[in-house]
UniProtKB/TrEMBL annotation:
<keyword id="KW-0732">Signal</keyword>
<dbReference type="InterPro" id="IPR007110">
    <property type="entry name" value="Ig-like_dom"/>
</dbReference>
<keyword id="KW-1015">Disulfide bond</keyword>
<feature type="domain" description="Ig-like">
    <location>
        <begin position="102"/>
        <end position="196"/>
    </location>
</feature>
<keyword id="KW-0391">Immunity</keyword>
<dbReference type="InterPro" id="IPR013783">
    <property type="entry name" value="Ig-like_fold"/>
</dbReference>
<keyword id="KW-0325">Glycoprotein</keyword>
<dbReference type="InterPro" id="IPR052051">
    <property type="entry name" value="TCR_complex_component"/>
</dbReference>
<dbReference type="Pfam" id="PF07686">
    <property type="entry name" value="V-set"/>
</dbReference>
<dbReference type="GO" id="GO:0005886">
    <property type="term" value="C:plasma membrane"/>
</dbReference>
<dbReference type="InterPro" id="IPR003599">
    <property type="entry name" value="Ig_sub"/>
</dbReference>
<dbReference type="InterPro" id="IPR013106">
    <property type="entry name" value="Ig_V-set"/>
</dbReference>
<keyword id="KW-1003">Cell membrane</keyword>
<keyword id="KW-0472">Membrane</keyword>
<protein>
    <recommendedName>
        <fullName>Ig-like domain-containing protein</fullName>
    </recommendedName>
</protein>
<dbReference type="GO" id="GO:0009617">
    <property type="term" value="P:response to bacterium"/>
</dbReference>
<dbReference type="GO" id="GO:0002376">
    <property type="term" value="P:immune system process"/>
</dbReference>
């Protein structure tokens, strides 16, 4: 296995043993494609160079060389050096070449706070911290910061804001802060994500869950009357008005 960064030059070699009728070939196999012939030569010494803008094959002392000029991401694949002799074919060398694309200096994205609870009409303030490591950076592309919201009933996050060039950003040697503030209503509930686009990639933060609380509903008090019955004296039996007046609530319960 050989790993290189994009735009680097790569040289692969395989042994070349002398045989008058032997032939050597470099082939490439990329997933989803037919094998590709890159160049060939005889086993005996031959001062011949096969060259394109991207590949060069030639003989070296006891070797057969494949040179790849300015590697690209799509050069990732299996490279085989093959020797044929009459009806026999021998694999002399196989190399898995991995070409890595340009890397951003961003090491992590942190959002704060992890959650927030606000009422309709209030403002919520979110912060996105972008941590960088300048030693990792292999591309010169400046990054852009975007905000997305994923609602509970949405199948895809919705775009809500992009920071412009004039955004107030507090810089240190390895950290930059992006602040986002919004006055919310009930429909603004959801998870807010900070996304950073750099070097052809999009990296997301851990998200902030924003909960919109409704106005406090008036608490209701429920009362359940319980009636007690007592014996009525002979003097009160004919006095219906007096009996009604004596009836009271004996049990009242409150529910919050």
């Amino acid at each position: 296995i050989k790993s290189v960064a994009a735009q680097q030059n790569v040289t692969l070699t395989c042994p070349r043993s002398f045989g008058v009728k032997d032939l050597l070939f470099w082939l490439r196999i990329i997933s989803g494609h037919q094998p590709e012939f890159l160049g060939g030569t005889y086993a005996f010494d031959l001062n011949k160079v096969t060259q394109t803008t991207h590949f060069t094959t030639k003989q070296g002392p006891g070797t057969f060389i494949l040179h790849i000029n300015h590697t690209q991401i799509n050069d990732t694949g299996l490279y085989y050096c093959i020797r044929t002799s009459k009806t026999n074919m021998t694999f002399l060398r196989g190399v898995l070449l991995k070409v890595k694309g340009p890397q951003s200096s961003i090491s992590s994205i942190i959002q704060a706070p992890p959650s927030a609870a606000v009422h309709p009409g209030e403002s919520v303030s979110l912060q996105c911290s972008v941590l960088s490591d300048s030693e990792k950076k292999t591309c010169s592309e400046d990054y852009r910061v975007h905000w997305f919201r994923a609602g509970s009933h949405q199948s895809h996050p919705s775009f809500i804001y992009t920071h412009g060039d004039n955004v107030e950003c507090g810089y240190s040697s390895q950290k930059c802060f992006y602040n986002f503030s919004k006055k919310v209503n009930v429909s603004d509930a959801g998870t807010y994500y900070c996304a950073v686009a750099a070097c052809g990639e999009v990296m997301f933060g851990n998200g902030t869950n924003v909960d919109i609380k409704g106005k406090d509903e008036a608490s209701l008090t429920y009362s359940a009357p319980t009636f007690s019955r007592r014996k009525v004296t002979k003097a009160e039996r004919g006095n219906t008005h007096s009996a009604k007046k004596e009836t009271i609530y004996s049990d009242v319960r409150f529910h919050n």
